[in-house]
Write the structure tokens for this entry.
Amino acid sequence: MKKLLVEVVVIVLLASTFGVARNLLFPNSISLAPSDEPILDIGAKQIDLEQAKRMFEEGVVFLDARGCPYYTAGHIAGARCLKPSEYEEKKADVLAGVAKDQPLVTYCDGKECSSSVLLAEKLLEDGYTNVYVYPNGWNEWREAGLPIEKGIMGGGW
């Protein structure tokens, strides 16, 4: 039994060493550290809570990608509701007055929610050039005690 355990440990160590070495040697490796590289190669930049807070204070437009029922229950103060699946029908109203080079931040519930990335992709495809994704979004913002609102904004956002 002891011999079997030693063999398993050796195999696991060898496999781990091989995996890390392969990751370091090949250009399409998996990053082992956070970076500012585009998310999913779509061209949007990922931001954290501190960056989101700074951009909020600068008056950057935040887009809630969760859908309007969730938005109505609570959202980042001043954010606009734009669910990716409703992008084409609502973009004219929601993005009225937003220049194509103006910074935009998309968010949803947290890291498990992909709607913010899907919305960012639609924005980029539509010609917006300064798009950021805040992956921890609503949950982290609210837990940090930062400004939130409830209800619908003017214009049906």
